[in-house]
Amino acid sequence: MPRRHDLDWVRVLAFALLVLYHVGMYYVTWEWHVDSPHASPALEPFMMLSSPWRLALLFLVSGAATAFLLGKARAAATRDGSRLRFLGARSWRLLVPLAFGMLVIVPPQSYYEVVDKLPGGYHDGYLAFWGRYLAADDSFCRGDDCLILPTWNHLWFVAYLWVYTVAVWLLARFAPRALAAAGERLANGLSSGVGILLWPIAFFALARVALIGRFEPTHALVDDWYNHVQYFAIFLLGFAIARAEGVWEAMVRRRWLALALWLASWLAVIAYFQHFREVEPPQALRLAMRAAWGLNQWCAIVAILGFARHLAPSDSPALRYLTRAIFPVYILHQTIIVLLAYHARPLDLPPLLEGPLLVVLTFGLCFAGYEAIRRIPPLRPLFGLKYRDPARSEAATTSPARSVTAES
């Protein structure tokens, strides 16, 4: 199949949204690694605009990308007989950055969290903390709330993505006919009428109503059952519909309706949380708003994918650059935000100035980091890139007029 440039743009912009969201986490009243002295609920309605769906969207796009990559690996396997080509390549691409991130990139986040929030503070310096981090020290506690070390923090997405990739590879390896048949039935159900909205909304609403009260999100993999139900399901959905043109066209047809439902449900959720911030809501209303959350989650995704498909963006040098850069930027961004935010406190800048400055500096430093990483081959695999830059290799062996293939 031709490369889906609309999905490339969705993936790039969804990861960029994560940077904005994590800058916002510094200024809201929700628990985060460090908190602004000016933290308030003012920004929370805008944070809620993407909270229900931003990670689900990434898992759906990742599921579709997995389908395309697995198809390429199968074609290669028919030539050389290697059945582990796909799983080995994906494990290298995901697990090496995850391990490096947990050992090197993430520890500063935990260090500044301890410095900022540990009763009495922490005064032994970063290297001493890093040694205790690597030794899995569990004594950094505030009452019964103890910091679990080592940790993957924002890199939990990478760990979950690898687990889901292994699961779908096993299904494709040992039950290919059942997987294909289920995918075909799903695509038929979603392509007809309002199925593209009805069935997924019902699933995500039911999942939240049934599970969120029993299994709060933890991002710890082993006990995160609500997240597994929603994220693995949407990963499988992306895998199943990757080549189902009827489903993508259904998203285009229903994009305006999905947009209206998304924004209406967002307003309802915001009103609910604002009104019941300090008051216990009736149980019936609580369940209804959990269902509204599921509606919001799926309608936002349909609207985004439908408009992206309708606009049909083409390939461009900017897209190829961003596609290669976005994973290293994602790995780096949260640590950079924490460092910048903590050390900007003595300046006592107003949030309306400090927040945009943090966004600009975070993107600037992340892309500067990528520019350094991509030029040093030993660093490239640590950030999810191939050891050698395919673009440079191709440029050295082809004419300047030939287009560059984006790194997959």
Summing up helix and strand content along with how strands pair, one would put the structural category as: mainly alpha
Number of domains: 2
How many strands, which pairing sense, and closed or not: the largest β-sheet? 2 strands, antiparallel
CA-atom Rg in angstroms: 22 Å
The proportion of residues forming helix, as a percent range, comes to: 55-70%
Our measurement of the CA-to-CA distance between the termini, rounded to an integer number of angstroms, reads 14 Å
Main sheet strand line-up: 1-2
Give the count of helical stretches: 16
Contiguous uncertain segments of 5+ residues: 398-408
Overall form: globular
The arrangement of helices and strands along the chain is HHHHHHEEHHHHHHHHHH
Quick one: how many beta strands? Answer: 2
Mean pLDDT: 92
Strand content: under 5%
Quick synopsis:
The chain is an all-alpha fold. The chain contains 16 helices and two strands. It folds into two domains: 1-47 and 316-387, no CATH class; 48-106 and 152-311, no CATH class.
Sum up the structure in keywords.
mainly alpha, 2 domains, two-stranded antiparallel ribbon, globular, disordered C terminus
